[in-house]
Amino acid sequence: MAEKKILLQEREIPKAWYNVLPDLPGSLPPELHPGTKKPLVPEDLLPIFPMACIEQEMSPQHRIDIPEEVLKVYTQYRPTPLRRAYRLEEAIGTSAKIYYKDESLSPPGSHKPNTAVAQAYYNKKEGVKRLATETGAGQWGSALAFACRMFGLECTIYMVGISYDQKPYRRFLAQSWGAEMFRSPSNRTEFGKKTRKEDPDCLGSLGIAISEAIEDAATHEDTKYSIGSVVNHVLLHQTIVGLEVEKQLDKVGEKPDIMIGCVGGGSNFSGFFLPFLPRKLAGENIRFIAVEPTACPSLTRGPYRYDFGDTAGTGPVVKMFTLGHSFVPPPIHAGGLRYHGDAPILCHLLKLGLIEAQAYHQKEVFDAALLFTQTEGFLPAPETAHATKAVIEEAKKAKPGTVIVFNHSGHGYFDLGAYDTYFRGKLEDYAYPQEKIEEALKSLPEVEEV
Ligand SMILES: *Cc1c(COP(=O)(O)O)cnc(C)c1O
């Protein structure tokens, strides 16, 4: 019986990812080398990524087959359900139809293993023994720890110091899957040691943790680096989400009018809507809405410029809507939405007017999260709740019968501390100041644009 169920499930999972690169209108600005500022060539990326992912980063193919071994791990939690939110609709009093894709049901509790599993597989296949990465609040770290465990790889995670101390539960989860965790800045890397020497009480930042993980990978023959969002191959792996949604909506005879997702680096939203982009390019009337916090408003208020992807300036230089790589995120509770830029593919589509972006304050976002929890029962991650808020606003003004679909990117069971802060009335709203944006833009890299 169990065998049969697994086989049935496997039949429902798409067998290839959708690669948007050949379908993109206009030309996507190339990624540049941080030193020379010339377009990257595959060799530049080999010390940190496996060849298969580098090829996917630049692939001209429309469909890329999902390896059998990756499908086997996907089958442990995919296909994820697409549900109609009847009770939420009723509570809002809307005659729009609301559907949500539930990515919170993976073992780590978010969409992130969709790419972690693929990356772990390709590294294993190319003889890599260990993966190094950074994590903030721990969503990405725990997803990679799970993926490495599935393929017998070692996993080293540099976790932002303050989260390591204050948000230990995802660290314990990653440790349960066998990952070794270091409080960043650590004593394991030259960059970490230097940072600690300059500031012994340093609480860390995502930028410092990225620099440590990249240094670890670049200085060990058997180790590569793994990234959880932003880059093209991560968005590619996440298209499994949207491809499933396509099949699931077909089954109930629906077509989406509005598709909504929250955006940190852009991977869950892109994976969710990109498979539907060809419909829009063919003239269908369909809206794609990206939602971000007012505290980190890269898509809604950042200029479209070349910038470093990481704080240390060691990674590729990419064109994106950015708050500047020296952006210091305010302490809001959606830790996963605090990146200074966004995926280049997503930014290109925003520039072309093919997607829209909206920003919300965290209090109204938690109000939305609570309404969703009290109607649908599932408690969203604070990141996810940004999408939920936008869904509620769109549903209120939608014409009868409008089909709104959103990506429920993760659960909030490790974020109950943030809910507690909200219940106690201690949550603060924050709009990122314009002076800070302008100041950070002074430190953008000098790039000759063609
Ligand atoms: C990491 C994370 C995000 C933000 O990352 P994207 O790359 O923009 O998807 C959103 N939701 C959850 C639950 C996350 O863990």
Please provide a written account of the structure:
The chain is globular. By secondary structure, it is of the alpha/beta class. It has a six-stranded mixed beta sheet with strand order 3-4-14-9-10-13, sandwiched between helices. The protein has a four-stranded parallel beta sheet with strand order 7-6-5-8, sandwiched between helices. It has a domain at 70-109 and 232-441: Rossmann fold (3-Layer(aba) Sandwich), CATH 3.40.50.1100. Strand 11 (304-308) and strand 12 form a beta hairpin. The protein contains 20 helices and 14 strands. The protein binds pyridoxal-5'-phosphate. Pyridoxal-5'-phosphate binds at residues 110, 112, 139, 229, 262-268, 336-337, 381, 383-384, 409-410. The site of pyridoxal-5'-phosphate has 18 residues, from helix 13 and helix 18.
Largest sheet: 6 strands, mixed
| Assigned CATH architecture of the domain at 70-109 and 232-441 | 3-Layer(aba) Sandwich
Question: Unreliable stretches, pLDDT < 50, 5 or more residues?
Answer: none
Give the end-to-end Cα distance, rounded to a whole number of Å: 60 Å
Strand order of the largest sheet: 3-4-14-9-10-13
The structural class is alpha/beta
Which geometry do the CA atoms define?
globular
At CATH level 3, the topology of the domain at 70-109 and 232-441 is: Rossmann fold
Q: Roughly what percent helix? A: 40-55%
The small-molecule ligands in this entry are: pyridoxal-5'-phosphate
Name the average pLDDT: 93
Q: Count of DSSP helices?
A: 20
Question: Taking Cα atoms only, what radius of gyration do you get, to the nearest Å?
Answer: 21 Å
Query: What fraction strand?
Result: 15-25%
- The overall strand count is 14
The top-level CATH class of the domain at 70-109 and 232-441 is Alpha Beta
